[in-house]
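Usage

Read records sequentially. Each one opens with the input sequence:
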Amino acid sequence: MASTKRLYVALSGHGFGHLAQVAPVLNAWRERWPQAKLTLQSALSEAALRQRIDGPFDHVALAADFGMVMVDALETKIPESLAAYRQFHAEWEARLAEQERALRAAQPDGVLADVPYLTLAAAHRLRIPALALCSLNWADILAGYCPNIPDLAELRKPMLSAYNSAKAFLQPTPSMPMPDLSNVQKLGPIAAVGRNRRAEIDRRLGLREREIVVLMGLGGVDMRPPLEAWPEQPGVRWLVPPNWAVSRPDMLDWGVLEDCSMVDLIRSCDVLFTKPGYGAFTEAACNGARALYVARDDWPEEPWLSRWLVEHGNAVKVGRSRLDSGDLADALRLLLERPAKPPVEPRGIAEAVGWLERLLDSA
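and closes with the structure output:
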């Protein structure tokens, strides 16, 4: 692969999970090809992208998809999502033309989408070789929520056509089934691996030996539990996001650890408290962290994520009501008493890099 190749990445802004999935692949690819040019299109902020993705890149602040319309990190607005898809497809040609203009301006040799189908459709029309990479696709997520609507096949048709137009749809482990895609290629797990900085974190936060540190990581869609009402658990400290503004001695703002990446925090904590999502689950498993996660049973991808994490990682699931009550002592005790399984190898990173190299070689 020539070092001057240009890669265009279209990244969903539906939370941070798509970024967590793509970033390790791009970073590994850039290690091999540091002179290659990278353009990132996403509704995520440039600051959020640069926290995860190493090296220079051009940022195109343009949303190519919206995923699903959310109430919060756990609850989906189904009628609003359906209306948004109908509107999106009613404006299909105009949106496709806008996406084509963005691709022409960047002049890429290849496209990687996680997982906006609009970008794949534009790449296909412009004859730019493309790959999709994701543990889900929006056609099957929509069908999971709205299986009986009369226009489901009509809505899914351009989605599936775009996904099938890619040279391959790379499915990292774990992924939901995608029976209507003919180009699926299965990969191993993808996750960033952090550094264990626990001794340093304990010192900087003034934590005592044997205190249990639980990292609160509920994803990129805002959701703050009523922490003021949670019971205190002796010997347990919670690391919470800076914008939660909690005033409790057992709940510490992780913002003071600004030089620690999220994946370093996951690697260093005793427990990650999270919701079902590809990035959180694979990062917990590949960093050897225990995971306490809140049920999200209506999310169509969830059964495959949960089954894999329970089998390969260290996890306990709790009901949604526990998020409100903070009644987590028994679940934490159960999780911590279980023998820990070893970290999972994120072998999907190298596999995805191989696909990227072959894609750009073919351009």
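Summary fields computed downstream for this record:
- The radius of gyration is 21 Å.
- The mean pLDDT is 94.
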